[in-house]
Amino acid sequence: MLRMSNLFLRTLRDDPSDAEVASHRLLVRAGYIRRAAPGGFTWLPLGWIVYRNVERIVREEMDAAGFQEVHFPALLPKEPYEATNRWVEYGENLFRLQDRHGNDFLLAPTHEEMFTLLVKGLYGSYKDLPLTIYQIQTKFRDEARPRAGLLRGREFVMKDSYSFDVDDAGLQRSYDLHREVYIKTFERLGLPTVIVSAMSGAMGGSASEEFLTPLEVGEDTYVRCSSCDYAANTEAVNVPAPPTVPIDGLPAAQVVDTPNTPTIQTLVDHLNAHPELARSDHAWEAADTMKNVIVKLRYPDGSTAPLAIGVPGNREVDTKRLEAQVAPAEVEAFDEADFAANPALVKGYIGPGALGSDGSSGIRFLVDPRIVEGTRWVTGANQPGKHVIDLTYGRDFTADGVIEAAEVIAGDACPNCGEPVEIARGIEMGHIFKLGRKYAESLGLTVQDENGKQVTVTMGSYGIGVSRAVAALAETNSDESGLCWPREVAPADVHLLIAGKEGGPQRPAAEDLAAQLEAAGCRVLFDDREGVSPGVRFKDAELIGVPTIVVVGRGITDGVVEVKDRRTGDRCDVPIGDVVAHINSLS
RNA sequence: CGGGAUGUGGCGCAGCCUGGUAGCGCACCUGCUUUGGGAGCAGGGGGUCGGGAGUUCGAAUCUCCCCAUCCCGACCA
Questions:
Q1: Nucleotides in chain B near protein beta carbons (<7 Å)
Q2: CA/C1' separation A38–B64 (Å)
Q3: Is a pLDDT exceeding 90 seen at residue A341?
Q4: Which of A21, A103, A196, A385 is the most exposed place for a label (fewest CB within 10 A)?
Q5: Of A168, A34, A15, A143, which is closest to residue A90 (Cα–Cα)?
Q6: Which pLDDT does position A186 carry in this prediction?
Q7: Closest residue (CA to C1') to nucleotide B74 in the complex
Q8: Which of A381, A415, A412, A411 shows the shortest CA–CA distance to A396?
Q9: pLDDT (tens digit, 9 = 90+) per residue, A189-219?
């Protein structure tokens, strides 16, 4: 039983000034967590109970699936990460440090290398596989900007599992099993999730899916089809290419004067104001133009290279989508100095003639998938104040390749069925993906097959944000008054409080009831503090968010107590002798 | 990485412009009263004023550097 008279807890009346999102605000205010470092939090007793409940559920589901738990150090040597090149590729998000001898270490952001090496050291036969092992461990990422409390810290707890199979069919089975286990785990946690196709990011590998909890404060944007079951992180959306158009008979490209057209809109207006430039089929619109955006890619080794991206003029370049495409390189702005170094680029009037391996600047030029043979565009003519119209792909220009970097807009056609898509935000709670043989190859993990031949093992990697799940649960289970936890993760089943004069019958009755509830297996948070006004007790109960609140108050003279549902606010009087049975019927 | 704001007891804030004994509310301690919706009165304890350097007889306050937190931007040709 948790007695508030001696529980290490102090609730706050005011919101902490640095807390923005609900989960952060309420977890701090209700005394669950406390900031200890930039992006790092201390768990207080109530918070630690909730955290362990979440961890327990995750562990139970892993174990039930037959996965086995191991535990690695968080502090790791550099060498395995050099073998896979991640010491460099992981970039600035990797915490690197040195010991007293000057040897390099890292604080692990994830443990692919170590799991691979562990299996390599112990197993050598196809008969040992399949195998899935996991750990629940603190991970470190030197986030550029930790924010939103527990939702995005620099230190957090993750459950990560890894599957090992001899062949692709085995990997598929391991992957599918994990997918099922995750669905069940999030259901049990009471966290709504959407499964979306994803990019595999810094881990490498191929197919991958994310489990996102829909949340406005989330940092992932995903699309969902209004009609079919397609859902994908915007980073992973593949825009379908339109059919090509026969080039015969298309109007010739012509360079036209377009003074004072610094933006796409002014350009479109200018064209429409000049009938001699009119198109035969429709009035000019932004989607008929192509804008060429120049960025600078910075590679992990520090080198940089410019990149030109051609997208339809009605769309912006989505930096996240772009970065997902060029990873591990990072995207930087192409600044004045860069323009100065590339005199072939006429700012505001950049066109394909200056771009690509065959262009005057030689800058690598990639275009949106919508730009296919026979499509014609209005775009820069590489001279101040001039654009070119009817510039046709495959006849007048070509690019070095295709890139998925244009933003996805609500209403775009679903890549699967063509119906309009919706756009929503969410936070990544889980990620499953097929690593394939990348790590096994770089680290030499092979087993002998039936024929005595060495074959490279194929792997899957699967993560759940355990500490983040606590924040996501707080985020999705709260109101103006405070938190309201799902029962299985709540710090207690019942918040029992006394509302009555000290010295009256309420305290002894509440003590008695607390003991009975506990004897019946109920987890009780008992507000037995003295000299605290009833208002404070009620406010604290609502803030703390235990699912059922039992008030021993004035009804006690009639032998009844009040049982209140924290979430709905529904309350009813229950004879004190029936409370235990009543509570048990709730869960 | 850029711009802006902020940093003063556990939490929320004032004081800074115009340098001179560090303040308020909540929380905490003592006493009395109060007890079904963040009680009242009285009396207390607690702060290297983010850090460092400088100016000055004297710095929370002025100057410089650094650090941290929050917000906005990171591209839109």
A1: 1, 10-13, 25-27, 33-39, 68-71, 73-77
A2: 26
A3: no
A4: A103
A5: A143
A6: 96
A7: A333
A8: A381
A9: 999 998 988 875 544 456 788 999 988 888 8
Nearest residue by alpha-carbon distance to C1' of B1: A332
- CA of A529: nearest nucleotide by C1' is B35
B74 C1' – A278 CA distance, angstroms?
Answer: 37
Whether omega for the bond prior to residue A77 falls within 30 degrees of 0, making it cis, is no
Tokens of A349: 């009037």
Q: Tell me the C-alpha distance between A59 and A500, whole Å.
A: 43
pLDDT at A306 over 90: no
Q: Which residues pair with A165 in a beta bridge?
A: A458
A495-544 residue pLDDT tens: 999 998 888 899 999 999 999 999 999 999 999 998 899 999 999 999 99
- Residue A97 pairs in a beta bridge with A105
Buried b (16+ CB within 10 A) or exposed e, A213-238: bbbebbebbbbbbeeeebbbbbbbbe
Distance from CA(A145) to C1'(B56), angstroms, rounded = 40
Please give the nucleotide, over all strands, whose C1' is closest to the CA of residue A538.
Answer: B37
Q: Which of A293, A398, A274, A300 is nearest to A338 (CA)?
A: A293
**Residue that is written with structure tokens 């994830």 in the block:** A110
Tell me what percent of chain A is helix, strand and coil, each rounded to the nearest 5: 30, 30, 40
DSSP state, A244? Answer: P
CA distances from A139 to A110, A463, A465, A478 (A): 6, 11, 10, 27
- Check residue A205 and give its pLDDT: 52
> Which nucleotide does the CA of A347 lie closest to, via C1'?
B77
- Mean pLDDT taken over chain A: 87
Whether the CB-CB separation of A505 and A557 falls below 8 Å is answered with yes
Burial A274-294 (b: 16+ CB within 10 A, else e): eeebebeeeebebebbbbbbb
Spanning CA of A41 to C1' of B7, the rounded length in angstroms is: 20
Average pLDDT of the segment spanning A216-245:
84
Å between CA of A489 and C1' of B74? 39
Among positive and negative, which fits the CA dihedral A527, A529, A534, A535? negative
A425 φ/ψ angles, rounded to the nearest 5 degrees = -115, 150
State the pTM of this model.
Answer: 0.87
Average pLDDT over residues A318-340: 77
Read off the tokens for A353.
């003639």
Beta bridge partners of A431: A210, A463
A160: phi then psi, degrees, rounded to nearest 5: -125, 130
Point out the least confidently predicted range of A59-68, A140-149, A575-584.
A140-149
Q: Residue A206 has what pLDDT?
A: 65
